[in-house]
Q: What sequence folds into this?
């Protein structure tokens, strides 16, 4: 079956713009994670869903970051009023049996 | 808090040779999982190998094997018969399991020399 997909692959935003990043998990995977990966660093946890419930959002860096998964499948990570420090790769993963499978990520560049 | 340390920012290996990437971690928990992920320039994070902490036997996947030393909190990855396609960033990660977030190291960039 298909893996985790993310769109867009690249996003360029002007500072102050809002952006929305989409994640399609592997079919049947209950859990979904978002991570932020700065240049030259390992991914860092942002938030986690089990079905439609957001169980942990402790990693979201500010209240400008918002994530949702209304029907327990596709998830959207929204960043309001983007700032230059938001530039990073945003990775989505869905999980099965204690193992997370990642999408290709969205590279966000804020000018 | 859990931490994962990869002390080798860069490594290189000759094609067909063997290389070992180091990883240490810190946790007070007894049950957990450890992973090695490969991230090529395409950015797709690919699972290489996983290890359950309760298992004493080291995991192997074809040319990839680990040396898991629970008491020392060490989890190194050995790549045998290195191939050009092995060139990538390699990340070590720790997880509590049960669908909880992973904690990643900063990665090791592996170059394979033809």
A:
């Amino acid at each position: 079956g298909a893996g985790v997909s993310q769109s867009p692959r690249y996003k360029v935003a002007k500072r102050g713009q809002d952006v929305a990043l989409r994640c399609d998990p592997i079919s049947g995977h209950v859990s979904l994670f978002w991570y932020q990966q700065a240049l030259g660093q390992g991914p860092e946890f942002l938030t986690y869903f089990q079905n439609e419930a957001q169980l942990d959002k402790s990693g979201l860096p500010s209240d400008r970051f918002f994530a949702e998964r209304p029907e327990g499948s596709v998830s959207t990570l929204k960043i309001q009023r983007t700032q230059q420090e938001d530039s990073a790769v945003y990775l989505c993963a869905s999980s099965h049996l204690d193992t997370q499978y990642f999408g290709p990520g969205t590279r966000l560049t804020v000018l | 808090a859990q931490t994962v340390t990869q002390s080798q920012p860069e490594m290189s290996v000759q094609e067909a040779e063997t290389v070992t990437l180091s990883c240490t971690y810190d946790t007070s928990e007894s049950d957990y999982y450890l992973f090695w992920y490969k991230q090529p320039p395409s950015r797709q994070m690919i699972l290489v190998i996983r290890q359950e902490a309760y298992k004493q036997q080291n995991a192997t996947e074809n040319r990839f094997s680990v040396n898991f030393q629970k008491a020392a909190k060490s989890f190194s990855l050995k790549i045998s018969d290195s191939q050009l396609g092995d060139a990538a960033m390699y990340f070590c990660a720790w997880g509590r399991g049960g669908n909880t977030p992973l904690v990643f190291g900063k990665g090791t960039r592996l170059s394979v020399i033809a």
Summary: The interface with chain B takes residues 30-31, 33, 35, 40-45, 48, 50, 56, 59, 89, 91, 93, 95, 98-105, 107 of chain A (CB under 8 Å). The two ends of chain A are 37 Å apart (CA to CA).
